[in-house]
Design brief:
alpha+beta; PH-domain like; four-stranded antiparallel β-sheet; three-stranded antiparallel β-sheet; 3 helices
Length: about 130
């Protein structure tokens, strides 16, 4: 028998059109993942582990400001979602800060440091020096 799992979300919203949540694009965040779901009949679902997030920024155009929404741009080390945009959501600054705190919390729990994100695949300048 298949076991049902329930995910507790910290935040969730839909992509908004003219400030109203009438699209079939949904975003959500749990304690350890960021979720993306798009579609009505054919649904695509993706997720990013929060410890893989490298950078978070906010973008708000004039039109977005008029309708009380904005977009969050997430850069990650995820192979599928390196550049991910959470488009046209409410409370953009609050969500960005919430996301930032969860990302830092997960990185601290995993004992990750900045050196894990610097590797560019090239030779290590410190290697071989004594």
């Amino acid at each position: 028998m298949a076991e049902k799992f329930s995910i507790e979300y910290i935040w969730k919203d839909r992509k908004r059109i003219l400030g109203m949540p009438i699209s079939f694009t949904r975003y959500a965040m749990s304690e350890d993942r960021l979720f993306y779901s798009k579609g009505l009949f054919n649904t695509v679902e993706k997720e990013i582990m929060l410890y893989r997030v490298k950078d978070i920024s906010v973008n708000r155009t004039l039109w977005q400001k008029l309708f009380g929404v904005g977009s969050i741009i997430v850069e990650s080390s995820d192979s599928d979602l390196k550049h991910f945009e959470i488009k046209n959501i409410k409370n953009t600054t609050y969500v960005k800060e919430l996301l930032h705190k969860q990302v830092e919390k997960k990185k601290d729990e995993k004992g990750m440091s900045i050196t894990e994100f610097i590797d560019n695949g090239g030779p290590n300048p410190m290697q071989g020096k004594k």
